[in-house]
Amino acid sequence: MNDGTSLPQKAVLDGQRTHWDTNFSQKPEMFGGAPSASAVKAAELFKKEGKNNLLELGGGQGRDTFFFAREGFKVTVLDYSQSAVEALRSKTEASGLADRITALRHDVREPLPFDADIFDACYSHMLFCMALTTAELERLSDEVRRVLKPGGLNVYTVRHTGDAHYGTGIHRGEDMYEVGGFIVHFFSKEKVRQLARGCEVVSIEEFEEGGLPRKLFRVTIRKKTGEPV
């Protein structure tokens, strides 16, 4: 197993956008229509705390996006795949949920296109464990903290270093490995805490999903009240 210290290969990481675009175009229901179990749990938490205005990162084909909207949340969803965003917009119009869903194409390696302190919560399912370097993840985490209201929640899921695929396939720098054409950045609990600067780590829960099975963390982070952005 590699020690995870090799430098990432930028051109290879950048190529993931084309890979995802191709997969989304060729497989309109790549992940199915049912919401992820993590979205269901996140919705329960958001309702309990009265968090209504959500930012979703990496919404893909919208299985969690539409679940949140049907549950009464207002959702602004970002994805860097143009084909995914176009499909999301089309589905939104057909579903009658246009007043609850706003879909935008955006690369999360760039600053988020929003003012500070406007979202009640942020949600993402395996976005943080995509082909993003640690430095890019740090910047993204800071941006999420910036756009959340004080006391706002960031709930995200990531595959962790106990996963069967960790250390297999092609090493792409740091703790990233390419398996089956997809690059995954595997997380340790230390990395979760490293990225949570300026916030309170509420919980790091372990769970399993899908084949293998994939082993993940479900992370809940709260922006501290009175914390400067």
Describe this structure in words.
- The protein has 229 residues and is of the alpha/beta class.
- It has one domain (10-223): Rossmann fold.
- Helix content is 31%, strand content 29%.
- It is built from 7 helices and 10 strands.
- The protein has helices spanning 10-14, 16-26, 37-48, 63-70, 82-95, 134-147, 189-195; strands at 53-57, 74-79, 101-105, 119-125, 148-159, 170-171, 176-179, 182-185, 199-209, 214-223.
- The strands form 2 sheets. Strands 3-2-1-4-5-10-9 form a 7-stranded mixed beta sheet, sandwiched between helices. A 3-stranded antiparallel beta sheet has the order 6-7-8.
- Helix 4 (63-70) links the parallel strand 1 (53-57) and strand 2 (74-79).
- The termini are far apart.
Overall CATH class:
Alpha Beta
Class per helix and strand makeup: alpha/beta
- Taken as a percent bin, the fraction of beta residues is 25-35%
Order of helices and strands: HHHEHEHEEHEEEEHEE
Shape: globular
CATH-assigned homologous superfamily? Vaccinia Virus protein VP39
Give the number of DSSP strands: 10
Q: Which regions have little confidence, pLDDT < 50, spanning 5+ residues?
A: 1-5
Rounded mean pLDDT is: 89
**Rg value:** 17 Å
Could you give the order of strands across the largest sheet? 3-2-1-4-5-10-9
The CATH topology label is: Rossmann fold
Distance between the termini: 38 Å
Features:
seven-stranded mixed β-sheet; Rossmann fold; 31% helix; three-stranded antiparallel β-sheet; disordered N terminus; globular; alpha/beta; 7 helices; 229 residues
